[in-house]
Amino acid sequence: MEKFLFLVFFLITNAAVCQFSASAKVNSRATIIDPITINKTVDLDFGNVISAYNPGRVILSPDGNRVAYGVQISNTFPGNVAPAEAVVKHGNNSYSITLPESFTLYHQEDPNQVLTIDEFTVSPESGEIMDVLKIGGTLNLEANQPAGYYTNNAGFNVMVSYN
Amino acid sequence: MKKITFILFALLSGTAFGQATATESATGTAEIVKPIGITNTGSSILDFGKVIVPTGASGSVQITAAAAPVRNLTGLDVIGTTFSSAEFAITASANNNYKITIPETELSGPGDPMPLVPISNLPLVSNKGDQILYVGGTLTVNDGQTEGTYSGIITVTVEYE
Q1: Would you tell me which residues 16-75 of chain A have a C-beta closer than 8 angstroms to some C-beta of chain B?
Q2: Are A32 and B147 in contact (CB under 8 A)?
């Protein structure tokens, strides 16, 4: 009888000290980021270029400098020379830039006459949450390229993507 | 006095006719059940990573409950590859049912709170003793959610049934 009572007592005391439930906590987090945006602020402009009897090209750097090969540029009458500019809002997150392979400009009065821009280059001026992209390129002229104003209102695309 | 005398007589006679000794055996059993416990192993955290704000409608990001979780996206995008599920070690006696409770919660930050529905790799009730519990979850991100870091606490409770 004593043993029985002891067992009953043991069961009662054991139940009293046994951990019936337990909890644990863990942190959870998420970082919310605004979508990346790009807004053009300046169009790409090679300025005035003097055509020649042979093909040539003009390289416009992102810093605005021009170098001509096979054709001439006038320092006296450069025209409006400007690398393209676009503002990228990135929130201090890394991103990639995709430039077009080439872009065609059409003579304003004769669309059969074209100029091709290729070898685009870009130089970002970095900020904490946004950058200013300056974009240059190479303008290719045929021999005896007809004079005139060449443009393409369709514009060329510069794509930015978060990495 | 007569009543008292009668009671004493009855007791004495009862003793006189009772057995001198008696033995009765009873079987005593005890099943020892170890205390149930749960701990967050290491410094694991349920991390949804970097989520880009959805535009036009809310979206969600889901982290599966696994050692090597998968991140599923609905109506939004993310950047980077950093994300993780939370890991817990449950200690319990085998063959004893215990229930696992993980209430819904939310992540708080600079904008509106974002609801978080936890996901577990284990059933709501288990009897398999010691186990590893992975906790993932589905986080709803509102259209136009304010940029910033959001955090919250997930509480996991295990209890014998």
Answers
A1: 18-36
A2: yes
Q: Are residues A117 and A139 in contact, defined by beta-carbon separation less than 8 angstroms?
A: yes
Instruction: Chain B: give the shortest CA distance to residue A126, in Å.
Output: 20
Instruction: Please tell me the least confidently modeled range out of B26-35, B43-52, B125-134.
Output: B26-35
A71: its two tokens: 């054709």
Query: What is the pTM (predicted TM-score) of this model?
Result: 0.75
* Cβ atoms < 10 Å from Cβ of B109: 19
For the question of an ipTM over 0.90, the answer is no
Residue B72 CB neighbours (<10 A): 12
pLDDT tens sequence across B53-90: 988 899 999 999 999 999 999 999 999 999 999 999 99
| Residue A13 pLDDT level (bands cut at 50, 70, 90) | very low
Provide the strand spans (E) within A3-153.
Answer: 21-33, 37-42, 45-46, 56-60, 66-69, 81-82, 84-89, 95-98, 102-107, 114-125, 130-141, 150-151
Tell which B residues from 41 to 100 touch A, by Cβ distance under 8 Å: 44-53, 55, 61, 77, 79-80, 86, 88
Per the CB < 8 Å rule, is A32 touching B156?
Answer: no
